[in-house]
């Protein structure tokens, strides 16, 4: 299946092929760390398959998953713009995943040659700031139960392939991390959804059976 990356939409087929030819195919196993916060940023990653979790940490040791990226997305752009040239987050594969790693020098040369790529990068980073701002407001004004419902809906859309109910390969601990809750509390919320037939829980996975009911409970 052909993957369309948001960052490369302004390129011609020839330009896209030229850039991808420079890239290096990387594969990662489930739960494998792609990079750690603070690592040198030597490449931009274009996600070919699989989903990856973006996790940030504070000096206090507290940490949280702030996003889950799907095929067609990319990561590492912000690090290429930083003066210190280091990764700003830890990236982990939620399931087996593949990326195309584009050398920093090649991507920076592309931005210089094609201003529209730089504009696309700026727009994408702005969207991510808006998304994080929205998540911060949710933490302050939206109850944990609705945050759980909304993250499940977002993941269900990302994993839906049109062949059946979306199966999310995430653990309850990962979902708690993504919603700012504790595992026991998130487990109680999930058990309520199981009793209503909205979801099904298996080992390391959550199957969404009734998206309409989940959307209603999410207040969307």
Automatic annotation (TrEMBL):
**Pfam families (alphabetical):** cNMP_binding, HTH_Crp_2
- Entry keyword annotation includes Magnesium: no
Coiled-coil intervals, chain numbering = none
Residues in HTH crp-type domain copies: 142-212
Q: Which GO terms describe its molecular function?
A: DNA binding; DNA-binding transcription factor activity
Q: Which UniProt keywords apply?
A: DNA-binding, Transcription, Transcription regulation
Q: Where is the Cyclic nucleotide-binding domain?
A: 7-128
Instruction: Please give the InterPro entries that the UniProt record associates with this protein.
Output: cNMP-bd_CS, cNMP-bd_dom, cNMP-bd_dom_sf, Env_Response_Regulators, HTH_CRP, RmlC-like_jellyroll, WH-like_DNA-bd_sf, WH_DNA-bd_sf
Keyword presence, DNA-binding: yes
GO terms for CC? Answer: cytosol
Q: Write down the PANTHER family for this protein, in alphabetical order.
A: CRP FAMILY TRANSCRIPTIONAL REGULATORY PROTEIN, HTH-TYPE TRANSCRIPTIONAL REGULATOR ARCR
Task: Name the chain's protein.
Answer: Crp/Fnr family transcriptional regulator
- Top-down, what is the taxonomic lineage of the species of origin? Bacteria, Bacillati, Actinomycetota, Actinomycetes, Propionibacteriales
């Amino acid at each position: 299946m052909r993957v369309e990356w948001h960052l490369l939409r302004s390129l011609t087929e020839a330009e896209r092929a030229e850039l991808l030819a420079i890239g290096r195919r990387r594969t990662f196993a489930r739960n494998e760390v792609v990079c750690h916060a603070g690592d040198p940023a030597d490449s931009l990653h274009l996600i070919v398959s699989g989903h990856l979790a973006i996790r940030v940490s504070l000096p206090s040791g507290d940490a949280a998953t702030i996003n889950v990226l799907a095929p067609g997305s990319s990561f590492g752009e912000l690090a290429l713009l930083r003066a210190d040239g280091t990764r700003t987050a830890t990236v982990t594969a939620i399931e087996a995943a593949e990326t195309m790693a584009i050398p920093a020098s090649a991507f920076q040369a592309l931005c210089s040659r094609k201003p529209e790529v730089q504009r696309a990068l700026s727009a994408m980073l702005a969207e991510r700031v808006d998304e994080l701002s929205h998540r911060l407001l949710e933490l302050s004004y939206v109850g944990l139960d609705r945050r759980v419902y909304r993250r499940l809906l977002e993941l269900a859309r990302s994993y839906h392939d049109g062949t059946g109910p979306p199966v999310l390969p995430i653990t309850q601990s990962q979902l708690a991390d993504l919603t700012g809750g504790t595992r026991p509390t998130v487990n109680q919320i999930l058990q309520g959804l199981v009793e209503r037939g909205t979801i099904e829980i298996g080992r390391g996975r959550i199957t969404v059976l009734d998206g309409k009911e989940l959307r209603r409970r999410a207040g969307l």
